[in-house]
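Repro case for the chain-ordering regression, as requested:
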Amino acid sequence: MVIQIEPDSVVPIYTQITQQIIEGIARGDIKPGDLLPSVRTLAADLGVNMHTVNKSYHQLEEKGFLQILPKSGSKITSPDELDPLTHERLAAELRPLIAESLAIGMSEEEIVNLVQTIIRDILQ
Amino acid sequence: MVIQIEPDSVVPIYTQITQQIIEGIARGDIKPGDLLPSVRTLAADLGVNMHTVNKSYHQLEEKGFLQILPKSGSKITSPDELDPLTHERLAAELRPLIAESLAIGMSEEEIVNLVQTIIRDILQ
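-- result from build under test --
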């Protein structure tokens, strides 16, 4: 899996790394138990600061997708080890965006179509 | 429409106000052209600081849902006056949450069901 950084994006680079790793997990390109490259290695590969990759790994750990093991590397969490609250957190984070979609006049069907388009775009 | 503040929530009070107003627009309880109460009035009604309501109104303005008119009050934007980029912004903000949903093992059907449940909960 290749991570592509857009230096001119409004999205911070550490967030770009986090999102691409999560999309990699979503597609199955990255699997539970996989070890991510060391912070040093990935930073060198991407040509970014080690601090940036470190921040992304900690963001992934906070979201429950990564276990940072100081001696043996950073391991992708398996779904059965995930915090059961993750589902509730996602529902709580989705709600304001769905409310905004309705408030700008989108119908239920249009919102569902948008979600399905995004899913296909991530999985392709 | 009644705004209910949960003082102990992890969601900041200004965000609670913003989200409830957006859900009011989504349901049609608040309509384009409606004037919101003045910052002073709403703050007094809710028993919160004027600064908190002011922050919420500016957040609503930033999202495009409110026009703050210094002399004639704060008016709800009509959908045809909305920035056409709002749709793209929402798609961009939805994508990382949908990627996370897939990454924790949710199927397309489960995500669509979750979205439909949230829509019904907002509209009820």
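Ordering looks correct now. Chain A touches chain B at residues 19, 22-23, 25-27, 63-65, 79, 82, 86-87, 90-91, 93-106, 108, 111-112, 114-116, 118-119, 121-123 (CB under 8 Å).
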